[in-house]
Amino acid sequence: MTLKLTVIGTGYLGATHAACMAELGYEVLGVDVDKEKIDSLSRGELPIHEPGLPELLRKHTQSGRLRFTTSFEEAGRFGDVHFIAVGTPQRAGEHAADMTYVDASVTAIARAATKSSLIVGKSTVPVGSARRLKTLARDESQGGVAIDFAWNPEFLREGFAVEDTLRPDRLVVGSDSVGAVDVLREVYADALSRDTPFIATDFETAELVKVAANAFLATKISFINAFSEVTETVGGDIRTLADAIGLDSRIGRKFLNAGIGFGGGCLPKDIRALQARVSELGLDTTMRFLNEVDEVNLRRRDRAVFVAETLVGNLEGKRIAVLGVAFKPNSDDVRDSPALDVAARLFNSGADVSVYDPAANANAARRYPRLNYVDSLSEAVRDADLVMMLTEWSELVSVDPDELAKTVAHRRIFDGRNVLDHGRWTAAGWDIVSLGHKSELLDEVLKH
Ligand code: UGA
């Protein structure tokens, strides 16, 4: 008999996982405490921007294979496997992860399960959580109902969430139960049939694989961004440097794009939570380098604001066009977005900031309502004293400098993502300043 799956938490991770499991042929019930979200998902409407996901959601809410509910009782009767996909945000005023939602979900589903089932954690959690949650689930379960437990971290990237879930590059399962691992082999049979590496391990390794991967990616970005600080001072080309070291297959070119740094709902909070967790374990100095990774990352935003101030003089009343505010392209997510942070800081210094993002304007407006959000690139740049390219959507990167030149007040552009062709922009009469590049223009202004 085909396994019935529930997915608890229907945010980015949960909604994607639920729709993709339905696509693989399972009957899936998505569970969330947010009634509005559940109603909209039940109608086949997705509250987030994620390529390919709306189609899957519509397809499977229509086929009936994918349903949504706020009822844990219903989920407890229905599911053979319960995936926990709720958030673990940074705790207010602290670096540690907030485990409230994970704990509450595990408790609720363990209490509600009326048949023997497997609970599988997917959320990113501090090491040691899975073992604790396994005991919690068993303590809370009804008599005679056997609850098995596993941890199966998720590595999906926003913007590629469907692809990453249907065709993952590896599957990691932590458990002390052979039965639990076998059930997950069955769930992921499709990926396994394509020889996807399947790593069965203990709880701690599985939890740590996830945070280690994100910490490594964050470190790689800050590594190249630290070199940006050097090339901005001494000269040199940060892109060529990244290309050249990236050709060493031990290093690799990916995640060496210098710019205003990393943001989003994962990398920043995960490196902070990891430091907090190892400190709790008495290893105060072990992950201290991640503090530097965080600092380098945040300094890139300071540099962007500094360049803007230097280029336009006093920011008061200056018209600045911000192109892109999502934390990365192909996403409407503005959580800890470097671009939005820079835009807000320019506004707070008195600039008149016009923002255009192909998908994230609405989310950004909820966070910073006072910026001027516009519906097109051409509106954003009209009469601008400075254009700031902050998120590298292909629609924005491919803009024609000659066209843009016709509408701005001053041909000045800041390339915060190292994606523009200097020669082309300079030929069209623009002053262009990029992070990671020494700028004669900046040096000139700073001399006076
Ligand atoms: C990240 C990981 O890449 C996923 O594997 C992981 O599953 C996910 O977090 C998670 O923990 O849920 P995501 O947050 O979607 O995925 O974004 P990334 O593609 O990793 O980009 C993160 C940030 O780094 C973005 O702000 C991006 O602009 C920035 N970045 C990326 C750079 O500044 N330079 C680069 O070279 C690459």
Structure description:
By secondary structure, this protein is α/β, with parallel strands linked by helices. It has three domains: 4-201, Rossmann fold (3-Layer(aba) Sandwich), CATH 3.40.50.720; 210-293, N-(1-d-carboxylethyl)-l-norvaline Dehydrogenase, domain 2 (Orthogonal Bundle); 300-447, NAD(P)-binding Rossmann-like Domain (Rossmann fold, 3-Layer(aba) Sandwich). Helix content is 47%, strand content 13%. It has 20 helices and 14 strands. The protein has helices at 12-23, 35-42, 53-63, 72-78, 100-112, 129-140, 161-166, 178-187, 189-192, 203-234, 238-246, 267-280, 288-312, 338-348, 361-367, 377-381, 394-397, 401-405, 422-427, 440-447; strands at 4-8, 27-31, 66-69, 81-84, 117-121, 147-151, 171-174, 198-201, 319-323, 352-356, 372-373, 386-389, 412-415, 431-434. A six-stranded parallel sheet has the order 3-2-1-4-5-6, with helices on both faces. Strand 1, helix 1 and strand 2 (27-31) form a beta-alpha-beta unit. The longest helix is centred in the middle third of the chain and has 32 residues, at 203-234. The protein is elongated and about 80 Å long. The N and C termini lie far apart (77 Å). The mean pLDDT is 97. It binds uridine-5'-diphosphate-glucuronic acid. The site of uridine-5'-diphosphate-glucuronic acid has 21 residues, from helix 10. Uridine-5'-diphosphate-glucuronic acid binds at residues 124, 154-158, 214, 217, 221, 255-257, 259, 261-264, 266-267, 327-328.
How would you summarize the topology of this molecule?
Blueprint: E1 4-8, H1 12-23, E2 27-31, H2 35-42, H3 53-63, E3 66-69, H4 72-78, E4 81-84, H5 100-112, E5 117-121, H6 129-140, E6 147-151, H7 161-166, E7 171-174, H8 178-187, H9 189-192, E8 198-201, H10 203-234, H11 238-246, H12 267-280, H13 288-312, E9 319-323, H14 338-348, E10 352-356, H15 361-367, E11 372-373, H16 377-381, E12 386-389, H17 394-397, H18 401-405, E13 412-415, H19 422-427, E14 431-434, H20 440-447
Parallel strand pairs: 1-2, 1-4, 2-3, 4-5, 5-6, 7-8, 9-10, 9-12, 10-11, 12-13, 13-14
This protein binds uridine-5'-diphosphate-glucuronic acid.
